[in-house]
Amino acid sequence: MFSDTKRYRTHYRAQFNQLKSSSDGEYAIPLDVLRTRLRKQRSTIKLRDDQIEALLREADKNGDERITVEEFEELVTSREAQSSQVKRALYAIADQVITPQQRIEVHSYIDEYTCCPPPLFILLITIIEIAVFFYYYWTEPLAAGEDIFTFCAGCYVDNHVGPLLFAPKLRAQVWRFLSYALLHAGLIHLVGNMTVQIVIGVPLEIVHKPWRIGPLYLMAVLTGALLQYTLDPKVYVVGASAGVYALLTAHLANIFLNWAEMPYRWVRLGLISIFLVFDIATAIFRRICSDECDTVSHSAHIAGGITGFCFGVVILYNIVERPWERIIKHVCISLYVAFVAFTIALTIFQQPESSALWESSKCTQQAWLRAALL
Predict the structure, then answer these.
(1) pLDDT at 261
(2) How distant, in Å, are the alpha carbons of 51, 58, 246 from that of 304?
(3) If we measure between CA atoms, which residue out of 222, 224, 131 comes closest to residue 182?
(4) Mode of pairing for the β-strands spanning 66-68 and 28-30
(5) Are residues 176 and 288 in the same domain?
(6) Contact criterion met (CB below 8 Å) for 237 and 180
(7) Which among 95, 272, 361, 366 counts the fewest CB atoms within 10 Å?
(8) Neighbour count for residue 352 (Cβ, 10 Å)
(9) pLDDT tens, 245-283?
(10) How do residues 285-305 score in pLDDT, each as one tens digit?
(11) In angstroms, rounded to a whole number, what is the distance separating the alpha carbons of residues 214 and 165?
């Protein structure tokens, strides 16, 4: 991910060499000598004496009263070394999705972070999705028996399909392949997606930058509609679940790539797995056991998960890239390109009246009723 890792390392070693003299030895600086030299340069590093003392004590972890270049790197990129509360907060957020070995590079990026562009993609898309939901909730009348928890905001406007909903017969209106993510089928649907989106998405965006997370999210939304139409071309698609699943599985890919280095890896894996299993099990139960004619999209979740994992393997930062991991990256790229091409081709040639792979005959009449709304 960080193509300029060597630049950061060179910069740190140059700083270290400036503080080191020929009498200090080749690899380390005596702690007392470094303390004195740092105090003389405190206007440059903008730290108080007591901060310097605390940082030096923490950096000298082996207690040998000497600071090596590796300890120096940890010192200058530690959260405690930052006087800015904003940077400390960014460090804390970023640390949730990286390994300890990644902190020097990631914290260095944050140190040079100029908020241009700002990490606002996830926050902005979240605000828009919330605003769209409440706009339609306040401006559209509720049907009998509907409330804020069951109201599909923006799905239907004046008894017609809304301008943002992905409807199979309107697939020629290509914006619908993305705009459906702005709609949600009730407050619980909205809150669940927005919570995961912020908790996982914001740290990922801070670390991996908007121009990686933005395309990942949008491609997940796009392929979500494509796969849903391919497998079940009579079902409408609504919600940001494809993008949310992409963020989750991108983080999952990061865990797998850095398994040995990732702290709390089993906890992270367990929490994500519980969410995925519960959500998928609920979808399967609703579709097969509870209501086999359910018109809620579930294939979009799968497409989002595939997108997130493939993107995650390819674009996220890997501490130690092993030969088999390079092979996995090429396999993921090839399979994902084939997956997208296949779904696009089927979307072009498959008709909206086509039956779903799992559709029963009793659902046909309901499909006709839905089509009449168009």
Answers:
(1) 60
(2) 45, 43, 5
(3) 131
(4) antiparallel
(5) yes
(6) yes
(7) 361
(8) 15
(9) 999 898 888 777 766 666 667 777 787 778 777 776 766
(10) 655 554 444 555 567 888 999
(11) 21
Annotated catalytic residue: which of 184, 189, 251, 301? Answer: 301
Centre a 10 Å sphere on the Cβ of residue 210 and count the other Cβ atoms it contains.
17
Domain's final residue, options 111, 141, 162: 111
Q: Where do runs of H (alpha helix) occur along 241-298?
A: 241-257, 265-284
Enumerate the β-bridge partners of residue 118.
none
Give yes or no: residues 71 and 170 share one domain: no
Q: Are residues 330 and 354 in the same domain?
A: yes
DSSP 152: E
Q: What is the DSSP letter of 237?
A: B
User: Which residue reads 């997130």 in tokens?
Assistant: 308
Give domain status of residue 116, yes or no: no
Lowest mean pLDDT among 156-160, 209-213, 284-288: 284-288
Paired tokens of 83: 């006087």
- Measured in whole angstroms, the distance separating CA 370 from the mean position of its chain's CA atoms is 34
Provide the terminal-to-terminal Cα distance of the chain, rounded to the nearest Å. 46
pTM score, whole prediction: 0.71
What's the total number of domains in the chain?
2
Q: Which two tokens stand for residue 292?
A: 């086999």
pLDDT digits (tens, 9 = 90+) for 215-244: 999 999 999 999 988 887 878 888 898 999
Identify the active-site residue in 241, 251, 297, 298. Answer: 241
d(CA 1, CA 283): 35
pLDDT at 365: 41
CB of 240 closer than 8 Å to CB of 221: yes
Q: How many Cβ atoms are within 10 Å of 83's Cβ, its own excluded?
A: 12
Instruction: Give bridge partners of residue 161 from the DSSP assignment.
Output: 156
- What residues contact residue 312 under an 8 Å CB cut-off, 6+ apart? 216, 249, 250, 251, 252, 253, 254, 257
Please answer whether residues 231 and 357 qualify as being in contact, where contact means their C-beta atoms are separated by less than 8 angstroms: yes
- Residue 241 is a catalytic residue: yes
Structure token pair of residue 293: 């004619």
Separation between Cα atoms, residue 233 and residue 252, nearest integer Å? 30
Distance CA 176, CA 170 (A): 8
Instruction: Please list the residues that pair with 160 across neighbouring strands.
Output: 157
Range of the domain at 327: 121-372
